[in-house]
Amino acid sequence: MVGVEFKSVEEAESFYHIYSKIIGFSVRKNQCRKNQAGIVTTRSWCCSNEGFRRTKYIKNPNRVREPRSEIRIGCRAMFRVCYSKIIKLWVVKEFRANHNHCMATDMQKHFLRSHRKISAAELEQAKLLKEAGMKTSEIWNLFVHQNGGWDKVGCTKKDLYNSLAAGRRGVDDLDANTTLTFLQSKLDIDPEFFYTYMVDEESRLTHLFWADGASRFDYELFGDSLAFDSTYKTNRCQMPLVVLVGSNNHGMTCVFGFALIQNETAETYTWVLQKFLKCMKDKLPETILTDGCRSMNKAIEDLMPSVVHRTCSWHILNNAIKHVHEEGFVGELRNLIKRYYLVDEFDLCWNKMLLDYNAENNEWAKALYSSRHQWADTHLRGSYFGGSTATNRCESMNAFLKRFLDEKLPLWRALQHCEHGLAALRYGELGKHAADKLSTPVLKRTSMSEIEEQFASIYTRNMFLEVRNQITRSEKYNVIRHHKLKASDICTIEKYLSKDHPKRKVTFKRIEREMSCDCYWLETKGIPCRHVFAAMKHLHLLDIPRNIIKNRWLKECKDIYLSSPDAQRRFVNPDMISSKRYGGINSQANLFLYYCKKSPKVQQRGMELMSTLLVEM
């Protein structure tokens, strides 16, 4: 081997790496000598098992972690080349082939350190997938499947984690500054984007609130009801994420804003609501739904005293299990929460329940009764809470976002992934809107087909189905009494063969063309009740009374503003521009690979074309 010539030091290095992989050992660089001009004249490589580890790294008394396994055992295998000025080539001067350790088998060679390297193309693909919200473990599984096995990837799972971490380490070290820069860049894309933040005495970020233009527009349309809750394990700083949500014209969840907070005190929630109202031009919601957190309650009482506040029924029932250990109590309490009683009836039922379950002296039950105006339908009927009595809309939104978030994420990356989740949510809404525009629901031939067709033409499909369900249920109700007054009709409605079912009164004002029911279903759920439809049928009304049509359910209510989901994902950053270019080429490359696998002949031709292109590039 001594005397073999190479055109360059890189060629010599490449040769020794290939040789070491065939034999089954790992290589590292050893000596490098330069002349007075600083030009390399001698380069050598050795086996990774060469030399011995210094004892100070092993016998350190302050070591916390277990020391890494020993690999340096004095192996003398090496390869040295020198530059010859005469022939202007690199010549092998020394080659030691003998090792003092066993060689790696074919199944072990891909674990050797010098032969593990993630390619630039795969690293770029991994970064793109990471930005799209995929976890590193999922990206690794994709690479394994894509390359045909773990040993074909070219690196280990740990190498992939390290490569991705190294690419963002410089940015993550300045997490707060990067986060604020990210938010500021959003203003270049979306002039209606809003963000504000608070720092402590040491200039550390403590609270952050943000909302984009689409969220602010959604609040203009659907801000009659607001729900918010906090969730954990969404970022590296362990800052709870607060999501403020409502429901859109499809009955789907829409996001009004996000906040990252340092703690969950009343002062913090007061800050969040103050900034939220500032963002929304001081427009108050009509109702608000929370999980009953005392800090939230205090902030709402101080800032929104006129807003109707409801406590989540699920949290109340869950607490009931802990405080009243009587079987059947939770079921009775659920009825009191969700059924509509007269106030006197409610108090009678409440006292009877306490007596039946020996809870008259239960302190928790006493405290719950004192706050009944925040959880009982009897006291809340007539207020719209997005069609829900619990914060399940918040919980489902938190679960949805956690598909994109991770507790190891830096703050700026958590914000970016929140955007990805929000874009996915809006894409689903866009699909619903397209379905409403491009198709019509199949109409049932109910007894009120004219009314059904009118609702189908103006309401979104989801809400039309809710209305049609009430029309269908109205067939079980009859008008047992009709009082015709000078300007109105009053119909008393009774359910067929159900004498215990409460009778309802429906009033129709003939001049105003307005209709109302004393069950307050329209005001509570946002859609007309079955009693209204029973009265309409009795009065032979062929047109929908104007007051029972709610603008928030109309198909066209958002046509004046439809933002592209892709616009929410843009980030003015050179790395993002590079990623976009990569993504555009990647889609074409995938199509190229699809055709290449059709047959061996096509595959061979594809390899020839690719080799030619790579040489040109």
Written account of the structure:
There is one protein chain. With 617 residues, the protein is α+β, with helices and mostly antiparallel strands. Helix content is 43%, strand content 17%. It is built from 21 helices and 16 strands. It has helices at 9-23, 120-131, 136-147, 157-172, 175-189, 213-222, 266-279, 294-303, 313-323, 329-338, 343-356, 363-370, 377-380, 392-401, 411-438, 449-458, 461-473, 521-525, 530-539, 574-596, 600-616, and strands spanning 5-6, 27-34, 40-47, 78-84, 89-96, 194-199, 205-211, 225-231, 241-247, 253-260, 287-290, 308-311, 477-484, 488-495, 504-509, 514-517. The strands form 3 sheets. It has a 7-stranded mixed sheet with strand order 6-7-10-9-8-11-12, sandwiched between helices. Helix 7 crosses helix 8 (294-303) and helix 9 packs antiparallel against helix 10. It is elongated, with a radius of gyration of 35 Å. Mean pLDDT is 85; it is low at 170-174 and 560-580.
Name a few traits of the molecule:
617 residues; alpha+beta; seven-stranded mixed beta sheet; 21 helices; 43% helix; elongated
Share of helix among residues? Answer: 40-55%
The major pleated sheet works out as: 7 strands, mixed
Q: How many beta strands in the DSSP annotation?
A: 16
* Estimated share of beta-strand residues: 15-25%
Mean pLDDT: 85
Q: Would you identify the regions where 5 or more consecutive residues have pLDDT less than 50?
A: 170-174, 560-580
